Amino acid sequence: MLVQVLLLQYTASVAIQAVTVNLPGPLYERLARRATKAHRTIEAELVDAVATLPDEPDELPADMAEAIAALHLLGDEELWRAARQRPVPEKASDLEYLHRKRQRDGLSTSELEALATLMKEYTRIMLVRSRAAALLKQRGHDVSELCEEHEP
Predict the structure, then answer these.
(1) pLDDT in tens, 53-84
(2) Residue 24: which H helix or E strand, with range?
(3) What does each of the 152 residues of the chain score in pLDDT, given as a tens digit?
(4) Are residues 63 and 112 in the same domain?
(5) Which H or E run contains 7?
(6) Where are the alpha helices (DSSP H) in the chain?
(7) 1 and 72 share one domain
(8) Number of domains in the chain
(9) Does one domain contain both 88 and 111?
């Protein structure tokens, strides 16, 4: 079953555009539950869902853009898991060791490659965590506890 939703952009500085969107019934119901929970209209929830899409996905490396591309489709529990994601402790230790060694002694070519790989993984995790937290906050959740959590 498809449900039609009229999407309006409520912004004073931008012209209002009307768009008709056909949504599958389960997706519409999920959107309606989110709107009810946040005490908002379905239209406002849909505008926010579209607004949370990355502005310029081409500016991120493809693997990083892919890591956050569908986060807005996740439910709240899945977003909380993503926002609490941590690097594997062994990799975090290796990353810290390589950073310190680089400052002290310098790194070999293989160590530089390992550091680059670890940094890329760490950056991806932090990007996913921050995007998930932003989405949770936008959905009305208090995400302050994420700021209080410390790395092991």
Answers:
(1) 655 555 778 888 888 888 988 999 999 999 99
(2) strand 18-24
(3) 455 555 554 444 556 777 787 888 888 888 888 888 878 888 877 877 776 665 555 577 888 888 888 898 899 999 999 999 998 999 999 999 998 888 888 878 888 888 889 998 998 999 999 999 999 988 889 998 888 765 44
(4) yes
(5) strand 2-8
(6) 25-38, 42-51, 62-69, 76-83, 89-104, 109-138, 144-148
(7) no
(8) 2
(9) yes
User: Domain span at residue 100?
Assistant: 57-152
Identify whether residues 42 and 64 lie together within a single domain: no
Q: How far apart are CA 89 and CA 130, in angstroms?
A: 19
* Residue type (1 letter), 81: R
To the nearest 10°, the Cα dihedral for 136, 139, 144, 147?
A: 20
Average pLDDT, the chain: 80
Is the pTM higher than 0.90?
Answer: no
Cα-based distances in Å from 108 to 3, 72, 98, 102, 113? 59, 41, 10, 9, 9
Residues 68 and 135 in one domain: yes
